[in-house]
Amino acid sequence: MNDVIASALSPASFLTVGHALKISLALGPHKAMYGSTLLGWKDHAWLVCEWPAQLGHDADIPRGTPCTISYLHEGKLVGYRTDIRDLVTSPVPLLFIAFPQNVEEMHLRKHARVSSCEPVLLMRQDAGSGSASSNYAGGMLKDLSLGGCSVALSQRPSWLRPGATIRLEFELPGLGHVTNLTGIVKNADAKDDHCLAGFEFQFDRMEYIEYRGWGGSVRQAVEQWTTQKTPPALPR
Predict the structure, then answer these.
(1) Quick one: DSSP state of residue 222?
(2) Cβ distance 201 to 234 under 8 Å?
(3) Is CATH 2.40.70.10 the right assignment for the domain spanning 114-229?
(4) Helix H or strand E segment including 35
Protein backbone atom coordinates (compact mmCIF):
# COMPACT_ATOMS: atom_id res chain seq x y z
CA MET A 1 0.00 0.00 0.00
CA ASN A 2 1.37 3.46 -0.84
CA ASP A 3 2.43 5.59 2.14
CA VAL A 4 1.54 9.28 2.28
CA ILE A 5 4.15 11.40 4.03
CA ALA A 6 3.64 15.03 5.05
CA SER A 7 6.83 17.06 5.39
CA ALA A 8 8.42 20.47 5.26
CA LEU A 9 10.68 20.92 2.28
CA SER A 10 13.70 22.65 0.87
CA PRO A 11 12.69 24.71 -2.21
CA ALA A 12 15.47 23.20 -4.31
CA SER A 13 14.28 19.68 -3.51
CA PHE A 14 11.42 19.72 -5.99
CA LEU A 15 11.27 22.92 -8.03
CA THR A 16 12.38 22.72 -11.64
CA VAL A 17 11.53 25.21 -14.38
CA GLY A 18 9.46 23.44 -17.02
CA HIS A 19 8.02 20.92 -14.57
CA ALA A 20 4.47 19.81 -15.44
CA LEU A 21 1.88 20.75 -12.79
CA LYS A 22 -1.75 19.82 -12.27
CA ILE A 23 -3.99 22.53 -10.79
CA SER A 24 -7.29 21.60 -9.13
CA LEU A 25 -9.74 24.34 -8.13
CA ALA A 26 -13.42 25.22 -7.92
CA LEU A 27 -14.91 27.60 -10.48
CA GLY A 28 -18.38 28.41 -9.28
CA PRO A 29 -20.27 25.22 -8.42
CA HIS A 30 -17.92 23.05 -10.46
CA LYS A 31 -14.54 21.53 -9.63
CA ALA A 32 -11.98 21.55 -12.41
CA MET A 33 -8.48 20.19 -13.06
CA TYR A 34 -6.03 21.77 -15.49
CA GLY A 35 -2.50 21.12 -16.70
CA SER A 36 0.16 23.83 -16.49
CA THR A 37 3.94 24.35 -16.46
CA LEU A 38 6.12 25.81 -13.72
CA LEU A 39 7.96 28.89 -15.00
CA GLY A 40 9.66 30.15 -11.84
CA TRP A 41 9.28 31.00 -8.17
CA LYS A 42 10.28 33.25 -5.28
CA ASP A 43 11.32 31.24 -2.24
CA HIS A 44 8.64 31.15 0.46
CA ALA A 45 6.50 33.66 -1.47
CA TRP A 46 4.99 32.39 -4.72
CA LEU A 47 5.20 30.10 -7.73
CA VAL A 48 4.49 31.37 -11.23
CA CYS A 49 3.12 29.06 -13.92
CA GLU A 50 1.51 29.22 -17.32
CA TRP A 51 -2.14 30.20 -17.43
CA PRO A 52 -3.97 26.96 -18.28
CA ALA A 53 -5.09 27.31 -21.88
CA GLN A 54 -8.44 25.66 -21.10
CA LEU A 55 -9.47 28.56 -18.84
CA GLY A 56 -9.11 31.26 -21.46
CA HIS A 57 -7.43 34.60 -20.81
CA ASP A 58 -10.58 36.31 -19.57
CA ALA A 59 -11.60 33.72 -16.97
CA ASP A 60 -12.44 35.32 -13.62
CA ILE A 61 -10.43 33.66 -10.84
CA PRO A 62 -10.65 35.75 -7.64
CA ARG A 63 -7.47 36.23 -5.64
CA GLY A 64 -7.43 33.89 -2.67
CA THR A 65 -9.26 31.10 -4.55
CA PRO A 66 -8.20 27.79 -2.90
CA CYS A 67 -6.51 25.27 -5.15
CA THR A 68 -4.40 22.13 -5.02
CA ILE A 69 -1.13 21.68 -6.89
CA SER A 70 0.14 18.19 -7.71
CA TYR A 71 2.98 16.81 -9.82
CA LEU A 72 5.21 13.77 -10.29
CA HIS A 73 8.75 13.94 -8.92
CA GLU A 74 11.26 11.07 -8.76
CA GLY A 75 8.60 8.37 -8.63
CA LYS A 76 6.40 10.20 -6.12
CA LEU A 77 3.06 11.97 -6.43
CA VAL A 78 3.60 15.27 -4.63
CA GLY A 79 0.90 17.78 -3.76
CA TYR A 80 -0.06 20.67 -1.51
CA ARG A 81 -3.04 22.92 -0.80
CA THR A 82 -2.59 26.60 -1.59
CA ASP A 83 -4.41 29.58 -3.13
CA ILE A 84 -4.26 31.91 -6.11
CA ARG A 85 -2.19 35.02 -5.33
CA ASP A 86 -2.48 36.92 -8.60
CA LEU A 87 -2.99 36.55 -12.34
CA VAL A 88 -1.63 38.44 -15.32
CA THR A 89 -3.19 38.34 -18.78
CA SER A 90 -0.76 40.56 -20.73
CA PRO A 91 1.67 40.31 -22.40
CA VAL A 92 1.70 36.62 -21.40
CA PRO A 93 -1.01 34.88 -19.35
CA LEU A 94 0.52 33.89 -15.99
CA LEU A 95 -0.83 32.52 -12.73
CA PHE A 96 0.81 33.24 -9.36
CA ILE A 97 0.27 30.67 -6.61
CA ALA A 98 1.26 30.78 -2.93
CA PHE A 99 4.52 28.96 -2.14
CA PRO A 100 4.09 25.67 -0.22
CA GLN A 101 4.88 25.38 3.48
CA ASN A 102 4.28 21.63 3.63
CA VAL A 103 3.74 18.97 1.01
CA GLU A 104 2.32 15.46 0.92
CA GLU A 105 4.21 12.74 -0.93
CA MET A 106 2.96 9.37 -2.14
CA HIS A 107 5.49 6.86 -3.43
CA LEU A 108 4.29 5.36 -6.71
CA ARG A 109 7.15 2.98 -7.37
CA LYS A 110 6.86 -0.54 -6.02
CA HIS A 111 10.48 -0.35 -4.87
CA ALA A 112 12.12 2.59 -3.10
CA ARG A 113 14.70 4.32 -5.30
CA VAL A 114 17.78 5.89 -3.73
CA SER A 115 20.36 8.30 -5.11
CA SER A 116 23.72 7.01 -6.27
CA CYS A 117 26.85 8.40 -7.88
CA GLU A 118 28.85 5.43 -9.14
CA PRO A 119 30.44 4.81 -12.55
CA VAL A 120 28.56 2.25 -14.63
CA LEU A 121 29.52 0.35 -17.78
CA LEU A 122 26.83 -0.51 -20.33
CA MET A 123 27.25 -3.19 -22.99
CA ARG A 124 24.83 -4.05 -25.76
CA GLN A 125 23.41 -7.56 -25.59
CA ASP A 126 23.96 -8.29 -29.29
CA ALA A 127 27.62 -7.25 -29.18
CA GLY A 128 28.60 -9.26 -32.25
CA SER A 129 28.68 -6.42 -34.76
CA GLY A 130 30.82 -3.32 -35.00
CA SER A 131 34.08 -2.52 -33.21
CA ALA A 132 34.56 -3.52 -29.59
CA SER A 133 34.52 0.09 -28.40
CA SER A 134 31.20 0.79 -30.15
CA ASN A 135 29.51 -1.95 -28.12
CA TYR A 136 30.26 -0.25 -24.79
CA ALA A 137 29.23 3.02 -23.16
CA GLY A 138 30.21 4.54 -19.83
CA GLY A 139 27.96 6.61 -17.62
CA MET A 140 27.09 7.55 -14.06
CA LEU A 141 24.54 5.70 -11.95
CA LYS A 142 22.08 8.36 -10.72
CA ASP A 143 19.66 6.25 -8.71
CA LEU A 144 19.02 2.61 -7.97
CA SER A 145 16.20 0.38 -6.77
CA LEU A 146 15.47 -3.33 -6.73
CA GLY A 147 13.44 -2.81 -9.88
CA GLY A 148 15.92 -0.79 -11.91
CA CYS A 149 18.10 2.30 -12.19
CA SER A 150 18.73 5.47 -14.14
CA VAL A 151 22.04 6.31 -15.79
CA ALA A 152 23.42 9.64 -17.06
CA LEU A 153 25.61 9.54 -20.18
CA SER A 154 27.46 12.28 -22.03
CA GLN A 155 26.32 10.75 -25.34
CA ARG A 156 23.64 8.23 -26.26
CA PRO A 157 24.91 5.34 -28.40
CA SER A 158 22.65 4.34 -31.28
CA TRP A 159 21.86 0.96 -29.69
CA LEU A 160 20.57 2.53 -26.46
CA ARG A 161 16.87 2.75 -27.29
CA PRO A 162 13.63 1.76 -25.52
CA GLY A 163 13.10 -2.01 -25.51
CA ALA A 164 16.77 -2.85 -26.05
CA THR A 165 18.47 -5.39 -23.75
CA ILE A 166 21.64 -4.11 -22.09
CA ARG A 167 24.14 -5.57 -19.65
CA LEU A 168 25.30 -3.38 -16.76
CA GLU A 169 28.39 -3.40 -14.55
CA PHE A 170 28.74 -1.19 -11.45
CA GLU A 171 29.90 -1.04 -7.83
CA LEU A 172 27.71 -1.43 -4.75
CA PRO A 173 29.94 0.37 -2.22
CA GLY A 174 30.59 -1.83 0.79
CA LEU A 175 29.05 -4.94 -0.78
CA GLY A 176 30.74 -5.76 -4.06
CA HIS A 177 31.09 -5.30 -7.80
CA VAL A 178 28.07 -6.27 -9.92
CA THR A 179 28.76 -7.66 -13.39
CA ASN A 180 26.61 -8.83 -16.29
CA LEU A 181 23.29 -7.60 -14.86
CA THR A 182 20.63 -7.54 -17.57
CA GLY A 183 18.52 -4.41 -17.98
CA ILE A 184 15.73 -3.48 -20.38
CA VAL A 185 15.85 0.12 -21.58
CA LYS A 186 12.58 1.79 -20.52
CA ASN A 187 13.44 5.29 -21.73
CA ALA A 188 16.42 7.24 -23.09
CA ASP A 189 15.95 11.00 -23.18
CA ALA A 190 18.64 13.15 -24.78
CA LYS A 191 18.80 16.70 -23.38
CA ASP A 192 21.36 19.27 -24.47
CA ASP A 193 24.77 17.64 -24.02
CA HIS A 194 23.74 14.56 -22.03
CA CYS A 195 21.34 11.61 -21.96
CA LEU A 196 19.38 10.11 -19.07
CA ALA A 197 18.35 6.47 -19.53
CA GLY A 198 16.11 4.31 -17.35
CA PHE A 199 16.54 0.53 -17.01
CA GLU A 200 14.39 -2.28 -15.63
CA PHE A 201 16.45 -5.11 -14.13
CA GLN A 202 16.02 -8.71 -15.27
CA PHE A 203 17.57 -10.95 -12.62
CA ASP A 204 18.67 -14.61 -12.90
CA ARG A 205 20.29 -14.10 -16.30
CA MET A 206 23.89 -14.99 -15.40
CA GLU A 207 24.60 -11.82 -13.38
CA TYR A 208 27.08 -12.14 -10.54
CA ILE A 209 28.76 -10.11 -7.81
CA GLU A 210 32.36 -10.07 -6.59
CA TYR A 211 31.81 -10.11 -2.84
CA ARG A 212 33.37 -7.88 -0.20
CA GLY A 213 33.04 -10.29 2.71
CA TRP A 214 29.33 -10.75 2.01
CA GLY A 215 27.44 -13.66 0.49
CA GLY A 216 24.27 -13.70 -1.56
CA SER A 217 22.83 -13.07 -4.98
CA VAL A 218 22.92 -9.83 -6.99
CA ARG A 219 19.23 -9.35 -6.28
CA GLN A 220 19.82 -9.67 -2.54
CA ALA A 221 22.81 -7.31 -2.73
CA VAL A 222 20.82 -4.60 -4.54
CA GLU A 223 17.92 -5.00 -2.11
CA GLN A 224 20.21 -4.77 0.94
CA TRP A 225 22.12 -1.77 -0.41
CA THR A 226 18.97 0.23 -1.23
CA THR A 227 17.39 -0.67 2.12
CA GLN A 228 20.47 0.65 3.94
CA LYS A 229 20.31 3.90 1.97
CA THR A 230 16.54 4.49 2.26
CA PRO A 231 15.79 7.09 4.97
CA PRO A 232 13.14 6.13 7.55
CA ALA A 233 9.65 7.48 6.94
CA LEU A 234 8.87 10.70 8.78
CA PRO A 235 6.26 10.42 11.57
CA ARG A 236 2.81 11.56 10.59
Answers:
(1) H
(2) no
(3) no
(4) strand 30-42
Strands (DSSP E) found in 43-128: 46-50, 66-73, 76-88, 94-98, 103-107, 114-124
Question: 153 pairs with which residues across the strands?
Answer: 195
Strand partners, 223: none
Domain(s) of CATH 2.40.10.220: residues in the chain: 114-229
The residue-averaged pLDDT of 21-31 equals 81
Say which CATH architecture domain 4-107 belongs to: Roll (2.30)
Cis? peptide before 91, omega within 30° of 0 = yes
Helices (H) and strands (E) in the chain, counts: 1, 15
Apex 36 CA angle, 187 and 82, nearest 5: 115
Residue 138, phi then psi, degrees to nearest 5 = -105, 145
Q: pLDDT per residue over 47-88, tens digit each? A: 999 887 656 555 667 888 898 888 876 666 788 889 999 988
The distance from CA 80 to its chain's CA centroid, rounded to whole angstroms, is: 18
